[in-house]
Write a structure and sequence with these properties.
Blueprint lengths: L4 E7 L20 E3 L2 E3 L7 E4 L9 H16 L3 E4 L13 H12 L22 H13 L3 E4 L3 H13 L11 H5 L9 E4 L8 E3 L3 E7 L12 E3 L7 H11 L4 E5 L6 H11 L5 E5 L2 E3 L23 H9 L20 H7 L10 E3 L1 H16 L2 H10 L6 H11 L30 H10 L4 H7 L2 H13 L7 H8 L1 H14 L1
Parallel strand pairs: 4-5, 11-12, 13-14
Antiparallel strand pairs: 1-9, 2-3, 6-7, 7-10, 8-9
Bound molecules: glutamic acid.
Glutamic acid binds next to loops.
């Protein structure tokens, strides 16, 4: 929560609190009655959006935001829009935009409209929509709801400093000088400020219910939350571009992280200034590590695409879906499987299943889902072939698929295949680790035409199996010897036995 905001009250917009929604001035959105059951899930097609700023690689938190918006749109036969909020040119990171597209594609989250797909609301990069924001900012200025501000950086800096010295201090710092002067007071390129209301209206959030979020003022030295909507370079600020686009793109539901909750009163005030109906707001809880700490790099805050060599997208999506949502139980007390494909998630997703507490990220759980989804995948031949194509251990996709079919049911990470490199290249024998009697056993094995039955009549069983395993895999455990021979073929087995004998 930002400093300087009062968290005055909160009631969850759940069925029990329907009467508290009857307070004046709070838009009565988001409550439907279906067969006598009160629900916050829309019964009309929802238009949602994912609006990332390309300032870094897409991490777990953003992926969840994208996913919930996508699931809501698909569940209600609505639309899912991708919009790039790239107006803060100083924070742009090279490669971040491409990473967003690649990650969504890998995860199977396909936008209906966006910078790549195009669509009726194009362009979808805010940096290409400058003229639109200017038109709307000018409209507010003409109506006296916004004004040009010529104050210098120094003056604004002094105001900020003096505001911090107030008791209590306040992050609302501007004194409205330019609103009162009504004229150009310096040669600075002006910014446009929104004339904020005396008091912000309460907001109604689907997860948090009704909230009264006000900036902290100091009554002795009154300042104003007249935030900038258009910067001196002509680019809009986040708040302004965000609401103009949400309105023009017909967004019905804004699902985003809780860190945006304190911006929502500002957004609502802007909607009111234009006379527009705001969308429904759905603020989802923060992601924390199991110890309730902010996520560290190891927890996938880096970029989720970097996990693609370990986990299936199906598993990651399943894992992420449960950070703040749970599937409905068929009846009270009855358990429900947490392992779900994207199609199952789409079918089961409902705003009624959202939860409020911080969502804890556990790597163990991710690998549990990965194991479950690898198991599911192993049963579908085409999927196994698709996965086989993603590995570069061999050019022989058919062989790779056969290997995967054997290994998948026991794997929990995709990179475990690295323990089976001997299935693709002849091992580099570490002869000092050879089991006792290895050379003699292998020579006899060849003489007996690779007949193990006969071989165990002459040597100890343990010696036989350890020696053959050594020749085939340099002693690596995992698969049973007949399984290895079956995969490698008898011809390759013979080759390895004779190479190994020569090395010993
Ligand atoms: N551009 C904002 C972000 O990077 C969007 C916040 C919102 O969804 O309103 O998260």
């Amino acid at each position: 929560m930002k400093i300087g905001y009062h968290w005055l009250s909160g009631t969850r917009g759940s069925p029990e609190t329907v009467s508290s929604l009857m307070e004046p001035k709070v838009p009565l959105l988001g409550m439907y009655v279906n067969n006598g059951i009160k629900s916050v899930h829309p019964h009309i097609p929802a238009v949602t959006r994912f609006a990332p700023s390309p300032t870094g690689y897409l991490h777990l938190g953003s992926l969840r935001t994208a996913l919930y918006n996508y699931l809501l749109a698909r569940n209600t036969n609505g639309k899912f829009i991708l919009r790039l909020e790239d107006t803060d040119q100083t924070r742009l990171v090279a490669g971040a935009e491409k990473n967003i597209y690649d990650t969504l594609k890998w995860c199977g989250i396909q936008p209906d409209e966006g910078p790549v797909q195009g669509g009726i609301h194009a362009p979808y990069r805010q940096s290409e929509r400058k003229h639109i924001y200017k038109e709307y900012a000018d409209q507010l200025v003409a109506q006296g709801k916004a004004y040009h501000c010529y104050c210098s950086k120094e003056r604004l800096g002094d105001l900020r400093e003096s505001a911090m010295k107030l008791k209590p201090p306040t992050t609302v710092t501007y004194d409205r000088k330019c609103f009162h002067s009504h004229s150009q007071t310096s040669d600075e390129q002006p910014v446009i400020r929104f004339k904020s209301p005396e008091k912000y209206d309460k907001i109604n959030d689907v997860v948090h219910g009704i909230l009264d979020l006000q900036p902290q003022y100091n009554s002795e030295d009154r300042r104003y939350d007249d935030f900038v909507i258009l910067k001196s370079d002509g680019l809009p600020t986040y708040h302004f571009a965000n609401i103009v686009d949400d309105h023009l793109m017909g967004i019905t539901h804004v699902i985003r992280g809780e860190e945006w909750l304190t911006s929502t009163p500002k957004h609502q005030a802007l909607y009111q200034a234009f006379g527009w109906t705001p969308p429904e707001f759905v603020h989802i809880p923060l992601l924390t590590s199991l110890k309730d700490k902010k996520l560290s790099k190891r927890d996938g805050i880096m970029g989720v695409l970097s996990m693609s060599d370990k986990v299936l997208p199906e598993a990651l999506i399943n894992f992420v879906a449960l950070f703040g949502w749970s599937p409905p139980r068929p009846s009270p007390g009855e358990s429900v499987s947490e392992v779900m494909s994207m199609d199952e998630l789409v079918e089961k997703f409902s705003l009624d299943g959202l939860t409020r507490g911080n969502a804890k990220v556990s790597n163990a759980k991710l690998y549990y889902f990965n194991k479950e989804h690898l198991h599911r995948l192993a049963k579908v031949d085409e999927k196994v072939v698709e996965l086989a194509e993603t590995y570069d251990l061999t050019d022989d996709t058919e062989y790779m698929a056969r290997v995967l079919k054997k290994l998948l049911p026991s794997m929990s990470s995709l990179d475990e295949i690295n323990n089976y490199k001997y299935l693709f290249t002849i091992p580099d024998y570490n002869t000092s680790n050879a089991p006792p009697n290895c050379k003699a056993v292998l020579m006899r094995y060849a003489e007996l035409e690779y007949n193990v039955e006969e071989l165990i009549k002459e040597f100890k069983k343990k010696e036989v199996f350890q020696s053959i395993r050594f020749a085939l895999s340099n002693g690596a455990p995992g698969l049973a010897i007949p399984e290895i021979i079956d995969l490698l073929t008898l011809e390759e087995t013979k080759k390895r036995v004779s190479t190994c004998i020569k090395k010993l």
